[in-house]
Amino acid sequence: MNVDTWSSPAVVAAFLSAVAAIAAAIATWRAPISAAQIAERLRRQGDSELEARRFKLNVFATIMQGRAELASEDTVRALNSIDVAFNKSEGVRESWAELYQSLNTSPWQAHVVDERMRRLLREMAQDLGISDTLRIDDFGRTYFPTALAQDREMRSLERAATLKRLMGQAAPEQNAATDAASLWPPKPNETDAGQE
């Protein structure tokens, strides 16, 4: 073959056709593999987003259910999970920071805590996309029967009495330790001091 043969349009067309056929064969071979990889990546991403939403809903529902009794273990766990569950929601995390500050302020002001709890719940509902059906007063409406309030008060009184009893038992031991420490080294007697 000479140079003129390679420059002929028929040879160039045949060469390009062969290259296109090879590329098509490679694409045909790679397409199912690429499609499977893309599908798996999308499935994992969807599962991850679904799990994150489920976690957010669980935290939100637990706080909603426990808003009448913030000191319950489940509510405390849910409150402490906010930063992780709503890590991409600045409004929720800011509202949680404000509530946290009011919970750790002495003296505890119930009206401030209540207002900040409502704001937190509203922000969480907005992040979850369910706020359009809930009003701010919906977050403040709680049902807490007298019997549950009395049970909580009895547990609180029992805990206080137990702590008082335990502290009372620790005090004599502390007094005995203090008395024993004051005996050593022994103080010199006046008679001992006179003999020296």
Low-confidence sequence ranges: none
Strand content: under 5%
Radius of gyration, CA atoms, in whole angstroms: 37 Å
Structural class: mainly alpha
Number of DSSP E strands: 0
Q: What's the mean pLDDT score?
A: 80
The best one-word shape is elongated
Could you give the distance between the termini?
130 Å
> Count of helical segments?
9
Question: Level of helix content?
Answer: over 70%
Largest sheet: none
Order of helices and strands: HHHHHHHHH
Keyword list:
196 residues, mainly alpha, 9 helices, 80% helix
Task: Give a quick precis of the structure.
With 196 residues, the chain is mainly α. The protein contains 9 helices and no strands. Helices cover 80% and strands 0% of the residues.
Can you describe what's shown?
The protein has a domain of 135 residues. It is mainly α and 196 residues long. The radius of gyration is 37 Å and the shape is elongated. The chain contains 9 helices and no strands. Helix 2 runs antiparallel to helix 3 and helix 2 runs antiparallel to helix 6. The longest helix is centred in the N-terminal third of the chain and has 58 residues.
